[in-house]
Design brief:
Radius of gyration: 17 Å
Structural class: alpha+beta
Strand order of the largest sheet: 1-2-6-7-10-13-14
CATH topology of one domain: Metallo-beta-lactamase, Chain A
Strand content: 25-35%
Mean pLDDT: 94
CATH superfamily of one domain: Ribonuclease Z/Hydroxyacylglutathione hydrolase-like
CATH architecture of one domain: 4-Layer Sandwich
Shape: globular
């Protein structure tokens, strides 16, 4: 698992901790099934033609009294415990301590861990004390589209749940989290800027999933609007360099956190 990154003031005082919660490396092809990949022993050439190699990596940010989870992983379980729960506990954080869950979109590799199946087979929100921030139109689109991109059973508990704050368009959460719909990777995909005591942490979800894509004119066929994603990446990278952003890359194996 990647090491946490401390954000500090010039005098060394701690602002926040960024904790990558890697769930491992996977390949994904046109079937949209995530197959585990061992980067030391597996050969990408042995996977189906067109397979992409990606990390699945939610992030936790501890900022003052806030414990913020950004996207929720695949939702895989080990010994009847969600992997994202295990990863948090390994970093000294109990799932009940999470105060906010920010969702860029609801594709299964980002939203599988929003809920956990209980002993009766019903899904319940995996972070019971957190407020979930979800685009209302993204949820409607996900339910309408369904499998294989979306796992409607897993995200179904969001509907009519008092712990969900439905976002409608762009806005600001609690004065310091700016969210914006991009309609890049998916029709209602959103990105986040967290303004933390003068530092800007940017999460671009699947519009900006890897460092290398920020530096190249890459148009992905799997994006809802690949050209727009490319243009946004160029714009964000340039602005981030000028303003000293900290980038979080959900699908980057080598560089999950990049501070400019």
């Amino acid at each position: 698992m990647s090491q946490q990154v401390a954000i500090t003031h010039a005098d060394g005082r701690l602002i926040a901790n960024i904790i990558p919660l890697s769930e491992g490396s996977f390949t994904i092809d046109k079937t949209k099934i995530f197959v585990p990949f061992n980067t030391e022993s597996d050969d990408l050439q042995q996977r189906p033609i067109g397979s992409l190699l990606v990390e699945v990596q939610p992030f936790c940010i501890v900022f003052g009294q806030e414990v913020i989870l950004i996207d929720a992983g695949l939702g895989f379980s080990q010994s009847n415990q969600l992997q994202i729960h295990q990863n948090l506990i390994a970093k000294g954080i109990q799932p009940t301590q999470v105060t906010k869950v920010l969702m860029s979109h609801l594709h299964k590799d980002h939203a599988g861990g929003v809920a956990k199946k209980d002993g009766l087979g019903n899904y319940r929100l995996a972070f019971p004390n957190a407020t979930y921030y979800v685009q209302k139109q993204e949820f409607a689109s996900a339910i309408d589209t369904g499998y294989p991109s979306y796992m409607t059973e897993e995200i179904g508990d969001l509907e009519n749940n008092p712990k969900v704050h439905w976002l409608e368009g762009d806005g600001i959460i609690d004065g310091y989290i700016h969210h914006q719909i991009t309609a890049g990777h998916s029709p209602f995909h959103q990105v986040f800027w967290l303004h933390l005591d003068g530092k800007i942490v940017f999460f671009g979800g699947d519009d900006a999933p890897q460092l290398q894509q920020m530096k190249s004119k890459f148009v992905a066929k799997y994006d809802f609007d690949g050209k727009k994603c490319m243009q946004l990446r160029q714009q964000w990278w340039e602005q981030g360099q000028q303003e000293g952003w900290i980038f979080l890359f959900y699908h980057d194996i080598k560089t999950p956190v990049v501070a400019l």
